[in-house]
Amino acid sequence: MKRVLVCGAGGFIGHHLVQRLKAEGAWVRGADLKYPGYSASGADEFVLGDLRNQTFVGELFDQPFDEIYQLAADMGGAGYIFTGEHDADVMRNSALINLNVLDTASQTGCRRIFYSSSACIYPEYNQLDPDNPNCAEDSAYPAAPDSEYGWEKLFSERLYLSYARNYGMQVRIARFHNIFGPQGSWNDGKEKAPAALCRKVAEAEDGAAIEIWGDGQQTRSFLYIDDCLEAVLRLMRSDWTGPVNIGSEEMVSINLLADMIAAIAGKALGKRHVPGAAGVRGRNSDNRLIREKLDWEPTLPLHAGLAKTYAWVSQQVSAAQFGIAAE
């Protein structure tokens, strides 16, 4: 039986990944500061602890693991990443986690490790045109990420690649582009655009207006969680290191994203554009390399993923209004 360690198993992607690995028949140990927020973990063992603590990380590696997935990070949506208020914590916390997990893995004979990087590593100067952003993998340098979060992710990519060269680690690196779906943050200040807009639409009365940060013309692409997991596992079990984009090429403006969610909810809603952290003007996954190397592309259209996510967020909103817990 394959033995797997998932770091960040209490988070959105990590929680779903544990479920996928268990469905495949793996034995899974999850580790995080917190349990998953909306349903119990499927991990065989879930160890609560701080991955910034080297002693705790050492205790996690009390056995050989066939695969390690390092998803743990200090992160959130635009309201958390782009204000500048959390820069020191974001860089310190995530760097410590990566240093501890990677170094301990290398010292204990666990060779194969996946690292979740981010599209935030791409240069801001390539994302000024909302209609024509350049996020090809080879466009990462000269480096100029738009946030300290992006700089830490880029540093950690280089850290993992250095361990691959110097210590023989079998490293796999993916750059995630806005992964979304049920059971993620939706109201804690760390939610990303799909969940935030689903919440706003669910809370709004028909005919009202919802707030949109900036002019709403900024563009993004969004990948549903199930497609993300399939790409992660293909990469992990390939003989290719990456880095590679894992995302969708279905680019939309934030205004259009809001309209799509309102249509799913059956509401006619206006928009009230307000100042806020909007990030780069344009960002879209470039999937040419992952198609070539892994023969992968998303299977679920954005609208279908949003319908699933809105149904879940709407349930959370309704439960919160009546003071009851929702799954």
UniProtKB/TrEMBL annotation:
The keyword NAD applies. Keywords: NAD. It holds the Pfam family Epimerase. Gene3D superfamilies: NAD(P)-binding Rossmann-like Domain (3.40.50.720), UDP-galactose 4-epimerase, domain 1 (3.90.25.10). Residues 4-247 form the NAD-dependent epimerase/dehydratase domain. It comes from the Bacteria. The keyword NAD applies. This is NAD-dependent epimerase/dehydratase family protein. It comes from Jiella flava.
